[in-house]
Amino acid sequence: GAYAGTRNLGKRLEELQVQIVPKESKNASTKEESVSYRVHRQTYGWEPLDVSDGTVSGSTGQAKRLEAIQIYLTGEVANYYDIYYRVHAQSYGWMNWAANGQKAGTAGLAKRLEAIQIVLVKKTDKAPGATFNGVTSAASACYVSLRSESNNVLTALGNHSGGSGTGDTVKGDTGKDNGNTGGTTDIPAPP
Questions:
Q1: CA gap 17, 139 in Å, rounded
Q2: Contact predicate 188/165, CB 8 Å
Q3: Weakly modelled stretches of the chain, pLDDT under 70
Q4: Phi and psi (nearest 5°) for 120?
């Protein structure tokens, strides 16, 4: 549940890599544990294809900001866990949680993503609350767009309302963020 990126420094995320790292081996995920994702980039919009398990999504060396993201689980892990994620967006601060493929961030507003927080939660547990691991959501929406598309909000998920996952880690590598190296964050994941 730690975050990757920066807050309140005006630094953009340019690329993202996410992967599940099993607790036992600390190596890349197996076929049973897989995470897929895609980003919305400055100038280009939504990437046409999803990538998985540590593959770079975004751009390297092009100075293009990430503006939104979608993340979802595949394989066996998707039967037992939900993936929750929220972003720190320019002018909005920490937005509300999105989950299981919902969009998080902004589109059509020219707002950069500055950080991301990701957590896996057992389907039988409650979703993370507005305040989680020292981070508090400032915005009630998880996604804002000027385009005619649905604004998915966490309340559409229904039965989740606070809690956390335990176990292995998910690696969220922010890649480059306007000159910073970003970093890697360890996030609770399945045992």
A1: 25
A2: yes
A3: 23-32, 147-191
A4: -95, 135
Of 158, 46, 51, 65, the residue nearest 103 (C-alpha)? 46
pTM of the model: 0.76
Return d(Cα 57, Cα 68) in angstroms, integer. 11
Separation of alpha carbons 105 and 87, rounded Å: 6
* Alpha-carbon torsion, ordered 106, 109, 111, 113, to 10 deg: 20
State the Cα–Cα distance between residues 30 and 39, nearest whole angstrom.
23
Q: Show the tokens assigned to 20.
A: 């599940």
Of 151, 54, 68, 52, the residue nearest 114 (C-alpha): 68
- Give me 155's structure tokens: 């309340």
Q: Both tokens of residue 100?
A: 């299981």
Query: Which among 146, 135, 141, 97 is positioned nearest to 7, based on CA atoms?
Result: 135
> Which phi and psi angles does 155 have, rounded to 5°?
-60, -20
Segment 78-106, tens digit of pLDDT: 999 999 999 999 999 999 999 999 999 99
> Is 154 strand, coil or helix?
helix
76, 120 Cβ separation under 8 angstroms: no
Neighbours of 72 (CB within 10 A): 19
